[in-house]
Write a structure and sequence with these properties.
The structure is a homodimer of 405-residue chains. Chain A is of the alpha/beta class and 405 residues long. Chain A is built from 13 helices and 13 strands. In chain A, the strands form three sheets. Chain A has a seven-stranded mixed beta sheet with strand order 2-8-7-6-5-3-4, with helices on both faces. Chain A has a four-stranded antiparallel beta sheet with strand order 9-10-13-12, with helices on one face. In chain A, a hairpin with a 3-residue loop joins strand 12 and strand 13. Chains A, B: This is Kynureninase. Chains A, B: Its EC number is 3.7.1.3.
Chain lengths: 405, 405
């Protein structure tokens, strides 16, 4: 073992033993010590207590109580109840977040909702051109269906592109590909100065860093729950509608769950007040209650502490990559500055290395990240269960793979 | 015991022992013999093998394989794979059904999709005025967002209301309140004769009776899976797009899952061919795979046999109600004619009886149905697990409750 390796491993051990969040790893089913799981930015690990909870939901609540569970087991109110659990993680006060549907469907609600709050003369919806593709596709549809046009703009160019024609902007808080963190307070303020509304996609930031929706005056936000919130595969997404917009929020998907008296079953639609207006149809209870249980791991955790560890982890990983990977083989496309970094590190493979092959070899050696075509290796750092020794090992194995040893 | 009771109980026993579907009850968790479960038209009972399957999905597929399960456990292709399992139950050939999202969201896709296939001069969407309310609310939104207007029409008046301005009609196959079965072949043909498209909601018919989507030339259909298909609370709905419309189907929710190359992650949207075009965002895997497992109970079952038993059950229940309930206390609002009856019986309480109180007392005595304001008691008959003795007992207890004994 080289001196550099020895030094980095000793530092990792020291950092792990000083880490106040280290004990949270025990809450997750991560018993395969031969694996370093760095894909929590795609699918969070399983919280250990979720299987028992869902067994009870299925066997007793569905199997025995059956229809009674809609009331007695609290199924009916799950979307708003779980919304309240997520709210503090994204800096939202009570009554503004509701869970249900996919992120794409919520982007549709949010962008149409925002567009309808703008005068018709504001006929453009600016869309982060680097966003996860579904946001762009859906924003295009929302624009078309509200008589607007969607205009893709690189996030850095957004302030200059805002103007009297802008109805709303849709921005991803953290770029899924590069891990770049966008300036939510600044872009929201710029949108407001231009008289436009700001819609944020929090898929890659919620649960990894403070968002501060209320503090920064965000208008609408959406996010998924299966990444840093560990809700399980395809767990339902959420919609945030700032309280000041709720009374005028005009959902394009006014399903019966958003009616003020859903069991009145009246032919006329009268929307409910509050976050519930963002509901649509019958909630997918199994997926939803797995998410609810998964959120228990956040008890007593501050998002600020999570952020501090996240930055320390990605700093340390980048340092280890620098030490272990021969110069010129990879380049980080994740910003070095903390203010611009999410909770993942993305490395571009240079000199023609096939990213897919590199990642497959990494996975075969127990380091699980993923890749995005054509040339980006992604490593997600979930502070609740990833440690510094994991970061060191991932970088070391990457170095071994790239030199072909 | 009166002679009438004795006779009906003997007939029930004979009918049950001659019932070729009776053995299917064993497939469900219905061990509380003190309960007659007649609310399968709202939430189907739990198939006995589902908990074990979902325990494996959570513990092994999510907990151990994690991100690899999107490929290795077949998560990614679940929406279309499960669509193929539902297809034969609703008379659809391969490649036309996809599972995902709620019924409300699928109504939106279907009605917008149908409207966009019509010339702009066809500016009306006729909506079954007796449909489950969410269909009306969503159709109104779909109409508004495609430059049309939604026109509520009683199903019986639909043929006369169809005309050169009709883009599409949205009809519920079975009325959720009365249990009336509408004439799918006739109304579909009438719509086509008028140059309009037919969109059917199968929530209360799929799994209870033959639908024949292909045979009758239906254009679009949607349905839920948690009633007669026993998929679990809020299990995902499905969308049927007839093959001849798929190439032109222009979804209002073009999420990345419907892209021809979703992992290409290109900024431009190019829709996939086939049923997959109806997908939107990441599927809710836990709810979806519970549904997939639940569909196993259909192996070797013909929907024609289910229909035959369903009609025999509701006939027998009506006969028992006639024998046990004092004349004038309830009136069936479910049509007597087989061609107009779904798989539920709805009884209107007369002489001011409070329907909610009656149902609460029934449930307290082990007969689980539900009620719909202001005055309808609903009893759903799921032929896979409800027997003739159940029907006799339900009617007998109803008689006891209504005479206050």
């Amino acid at each position: 073992m080289s001196d550099a390796t020895n030094d980095l491993q000793q530092r990792a051990a020291a950092l792990d033993s000083a880490d106040p969040l280290a004990k949270h790893r025990e809450l997750f089913a991560l018993d395969d010590v031969e694996t370093v799981y760095l894909d929590g930015n795609s699918l969070g690990a399983l919280p250990r207590h979720v299987p028992e909870r869902i067994a009870d939901v299925i066997t007793r609540e569905w199997g025995e109580l059956r229809i009674r569970s809609w009331d007695e087991s609290g199924w009916w109110t799950a979307p708003e109840r779980i919304g309240e659990r997520i709210a503090p993680l994204i800096g939202a006060g009570a009554g503004q977040v509701v869970v249900g549907d996919s992120t794409s469907v919520n982007v549709f609600k949010a962008v149409v909702g925002a567009a309808r709050l703008a005068p018709e003369s504001r006929d453009e919806i600016l869309v982060d051109a680097t966003t996860f593709p579904t946001d762009g596709y859906i924003a295009e549809s929302a624009a078309r269906m509200t008589g607007r046009r969607a205009v893709p703009v690189a996030p850095g160019d957004l302030p200059a592109a805002l103007g009297p024609r802008t109805a709303a902007v849709l921005v991803n808080h953290v770029d899924y590909r590069t891990g770049r963190l966008h300036d939510l307070p600044g872009l929201t303020a710029a949108a407001h100065e231009a008289g436009a509304l700001a819609v944020w996609d929090l898929c890659h930031s919620a649960g990894a860093l403070p968002v501060g929706l209320d503090a920064h005056g965000v208008d609408f936000a959406v996010g998924c729950t299966y990444k840093y919130l560990n809700g399980g595969p395809g767990s339902p997404a959420y919609l945030y509608v700032a309280e000041r917009h709720q009374a005028a929020f005009d959902s394009p998907l006014p399903g019966w769950n958003s009616h003020t008296d859903p069991f009145g079953m009246t032919p006329g639609y009268t929307p409910a007040d509050g976050a519930v207006r963002g509901r649509v149809g019958t909630p997918d209870i199994l997926s939803m209650l797995a998410l609810e249980a998964a959120l228990d791991v956040w008890e007593g955790v501050s998002v600020e502490d999570v952020r501090e560890k996240s930055l320390a982890l990605t700093d340390f990983f980048l340092e280890c990559v620098d030490a272990y990977v021969p110069r010129g083989r990879v380049t980080s496309v994740t910003p070095a500055g903390h203010a611009e970094r999410g909770s993942q590190v993305s490395l571009r493979c240079e000199d023609g290395a096939e990213t897919g092959d590199v990642m497959r070899e990494l996975i075969a050696r127990g380091v699980v990240g993923d890749f995005r075509r054509p040339d980006v290796l992604r490593f997600g750092f979930t502070p609740l269960y990833v440690g510094f020794a994991d970061a060191e090992r991932a970088a070391r194995v990457l170095g071994e793979v790239l030199v072909g040893s």
